[in-house]
Specification:
Helix 2 crosses helix 3 and helix 4 runs parallel beside helix 5. The strands form three sheets. Strands 1, 2, 3, 4, 5, 6, 7, 8 and 9 form a nine-stranded mixed beta sheet that branches. A two-stranded antiparallel sheet has the order 10-13. The chain has two domains: 69 residues, no CATH class; 240 residues, Alpha-Beta Barrel (TIM Barrel), CATH 3.20.20. By secondary structure, the protein is an alpha/beta fold.
Length: 343
């Protein structure tokens, strides 16, 4: 029953509507998820969460005109944890609501700090979890944070997904209009991946659409290129701003410039950086594109010799302890390709 429950948990993790067969490695994965969920409840109080900022730039000039706040977790034992690992946990156990409020509060406080230092300011985008809108206090929470920090609402851009609009259609129009009246902007994230994007663009008064990175990555594919071109033309026809995510190469940049995309965001200009580094961008707002360097091949640097096996050996592996604490997580099969003394 315990193994069936483990497989069930993994099936839910994979998006539901599927089945998963239990394997011993699931115990190791479940152990980490359990540890993260337990520690995540204390992360905000312990000041372990932090924000990095990724620039949005004018594709032609490289001038900084916006940014997206992206959350990170500096875990005391596991190190820097990707949001892809802990955000799904937070979504499932309800912690995403205080985490979302923490992000809004932290962005506003940082904007206020930069303003006091007379640093030029730009709008900052914040990802809003669909779960946050299940609580009726979300509008009042945002208004209270703005009042408390004294930040101009025009510096906030709330990124929402199409699923949010679908699930909250009845009450969402009035809520959006209430916040837009004071200057807050709204962006529709992951545009092009849903089923009713055109309908909701017409119905809801958003300001920006963000083209999903999958279309940018595969822009050489004829169908993806046409989708990207159509999104940009349609958005401009509706007087909306267009942001392209995941731009990593100069060829992608040139393609988007040709299509008159308003802003680009991606590693070509900058990865997400800590606030102190981003402050440097604000003071010197023209960014130079830096193509991603090819991955350096792994080099064997052990001081002791290794014996390569003709055929890999199959064995069992387990985690005996984590930072000196005993752990009981079962075993998983692994293949050993070589062996040697020492580390």
């Amino acid at each position: 029953m315990a193994r069936a429950d483990t497989a069930l948990y993994r099936a839910k993790e994979m998006g539901k509507n599927n089945f998963q067969i239990y394997t011993p490695s699931m115990n190791i994965e479940s152990f980490k998820v359990f540890q993260l969920e337990k520690d995540l409840r204390k992360a905000i109080k312990k000041d372990e969460l932090l924000l990095h900022y990724q620039p949005k730039v004018d594709g032609r000039t490289g001038r900084l005109i916006g940014a997206e706040a992206l959350i990170r977790w500096q875990h005391p034992e596991w190190g820097l944890i990707s949001p892809h690992e802990f955000i799904p946990i937070a979504e499932e156990n309800g912690l995403i609501i205080p985490i979302t409020d923490w992000v809004i509060q932290t962005v506003c406080e940082k904007l206020r700090e930069w303003e006091s230092l007379q640093v030029p300011l730009i709008p900052i985008s914040i990802n809003m979890s669909p779960k946050r809108f299940l609580r009726n206090d979300w509008v009042e929470t945002i208004l209270n944070i703005i009042k408390e920090t004294g930040v101009s609402p025009s510096l906030l851009d709330l990124e929402i997904t199409e699923s949010v609009l679908i699930q909250n259609e009845e009450t969402f129009i009035s809520s959006i209009e209430r916040l837009k009246e004071i200057g807050i902007r709204f962006s529709l994230d992951d545009f092009g991946t849903g089923f009713s994007s055109l309908l909701y663009l017409k119905k809801f008064n958003v300001d920006t659409v963000k083209i999903d990175r999958s279309f940018i990555r595969d822009y050489l594919n004829e169908s993806d290129a046409e989708i990207t071109k159509s999104i940009i033309r349609m958005a401009h026809g509706l007087r909306l701003t267009v942001v392209a995510e995941g731009v990593e190469t100069k060829e992608q940049r040139m393609f988007l410039i040709e299509q008159e995309c308003d802003m680009i965001q991606g590693y070509l200009f900058s990865k997400p950086v800590p606030p102190e580094d981003f402050q440097g961008f604000l003071l010197d707002p023209v960014l130079i594109p830096e193509p991603i360097q090819p991955e350096i091949p792994f080099e064997e640097n052990r001081e002791v010799f290794r014996i390569d096996f003709t055929y890999p050996l199959r064995t069992d592996m387990t985690i005996a302890s984590v930072n000196g604490k005993s752990a009981t997580v079962g075993t998983t099969e692994v293949l050993v390709e070589n062996l040697g003394p020492g580390d």
